[in-house]
């Protein structure tokens, strides 16, 4: 199987949209990765990545397991330092900025977060306010307003005094999203926020993120596994394989049969849903 996949990826008939051909965005760029390479210890993962995150849009990263999606997110969020290249946040090198300054501009929700046993919902959401506090400036009315707003938009206000571990998976995920929103940043990065959730709950979470992004003017970068969910919600779609970006741009330009075959080794038809205005992939059952 591995050899078949290797042969498939090197099939000359597979044509992928070159990065140079992607349409130039007309929106300001809030987060930019330029020629970054990164990894863990001596193990390289990312290879000379260039990525622009358009302001006010939802950028979704997709690709096979181990392709570097989470590594890219962590590098852009300043958790990992690139061995080459740079990441700029609003025009400044993110790895040269103070931690608090970065946290006041960019929130990160990591994959599979775990809350301490017995921690209540309001206490968790309140942790999103830490970047705004100092020794001289403790909890203020602004902090309370931000926490109340975050719980309201994520529809968890009724759980405020309940322990996190007493909630369902979907409810817990909304609590973590509320914590990220309480941070009050224009840019929010989320690593697989729908993993292990039922399809209906995945849709609920993505509807919540999309609605919040549009109404509150947030820029979001999201790592997802479900291809049709990604196609349904992405403004800007990024396809990765083996530590490289294979294609990026408008979802209707990028979500193609050729790119799905090149990136995932997936033989599927891509049809256009006229009602949704989005592409959908249908796997070839005879493949």
Could you explain how this protein is built, in words?
The protein is of the alpha/beta class and 287 residues long. The protein folds into two domains: 31-105 and 186-283, Rossmann fold (3-Layer(aba) Sandwich); 114-184, no CATH class. The chain has ten helices and twelve strands. The chain has helices spanning 2-9, 69-76, 99-103, 121-126, 141-153, 169-182, 199-216, 227-233, 251-254, 257-264; strands at 29-40, 43-54, 58-62, 84-89, 92-93, 106-109, 187-191, 219-223, 236-241, 244-250, 268-273, 278-283. A six-stranded mixed beta sheet has the order 6-7-8-3-9-10, sandwiched between helices. Strand 11 (268-273) and strand 12 (278-283) form a beta hairpin. Helix 5 runs antiparallel to helix 6 (169-182) and helix 6 (169-182) runs parallel beside helix 7. The longest helix has 18 residues, at 199-216. It is globular and about 60 Å long.
Structural topology:
Elements: H1 2-9, E1 29-40, E2 43-54, E3 58-62, H2 69-76, E4 84-89, E5 92-93, H3 99-103, E6 106-109, H4 121-126, H5 141-153, H6 169-182, E7 187-191, H7 199-216, E8 219-223, H8 227-233, E9 236-241, E10 244-250, H9 251-254, H10 257-264, E11 268-273, E12 278-283
Parallel strand pairs: 3-8, 3-9, 6-7, 7-8
Antiparallel strand pairs: 1-2, 1-4, 4-5, 9-10, 11-12
Helix pairs in contact: 5-6, 6-7
Protein name: Iron complex transport system ATP-binding protein
InterPro entries: AAA+_ATPase, ABC_transporter-like_ATP-bd, P-loop_NTPase, Siderophore_ABC-ATPase
Membrane topology: Peripheral membrane protein
